[in-house]
Amino acid sequence: MKIKQIMKKAVFVSLNTLKKDLLKIAKKHPNTKIFVIIDKKKQFLGDIHENDLFYMFIPNKYYETAGMNLAFDLEKKFFAKTAKEIMRKHDTTCNQDDELTDVALKIANIEINEIPVLNKKNEVVGVIDQGTILRHLNLK
């Protein structure tokens, strides 16, 4: 089975999307766990997971007992004003014509939950997540 058969529609945000607008987008798309950041040519730049958004809106003072490293990361997210400041930059993607099992192995090997799906022009056309893959695996 090809990824394009089961991928979900991507929810796009720009680098300059403001904090308040990120919250509006998250409310508009309640079942979306990952927001994809693209440039004007629809090329993948990074993503924001719903967990990142959650910590962007929770004051850091509630996490003072979490330790210095964790507190610093949470503080960075809380004080961020745009998508660019909290997006995760990585190059983990898959192609819409990739086989389901190949993408499942890729996700498992790098221990992530969702990745953007690209077409032949390297434009983001969707996202795929562990749950969707799990529900479509055919084990013999």
Q: SSE layout and pairings?
A:
Blueprint: E1 11-13, H1 19-28, E2 34-38, E3 44-49, H2 50-57, H3 68-79, H4 83-86, E4 94-95, H5 100-110, E5 114-118, E6 124-129, H6 130-136
Parallel strand pairs: 1-2, 4-5
Antiparallel strand pairs: 2-3, 5-6
Helix pairs in contact: 2-3, 5-6
Strand order of the largest sheet: 1-2-3
Mean pLDDT: 84
Radius of gyration: 16 Å
Number of helices: 6
Q: Give helix % range.
A: 25-40%
Distance between the termini: 15 Å
Q: Sketch the topology as an H/E string, one letter per element.
A: EHEEHHHEHEEH
What does this structure look like?
By secondary structure, this protein is of the alpha/beta class. It has one domain: Roll (CBS-domain), CATH 3.10.580.10. It contains six helices and six strands. It has helices at residues 19-28, 50-57, 68-79, 83-86, 100-110, 130-136; strands at 11-13, 34-38, 44-49, 94-95, 114-118, 124-129. The strands form two sheets. A three-stranded mixed sheet has the order 1-2-3. Strands 4-5-6 form a three-stranded mixed sheet. α5 links the parallel β4 (94-95) and β5 (114-118). The longest helix has 12 residues, at 68-79. The two termini are 15 Å apart. The model is unreliable at 66-72 (pLDDT under 50).
Summarize the structure.
37% of the residues lie in helices and 19% in strands. The chain is α/β, with parallel strands linked by helices and 140 residues long.
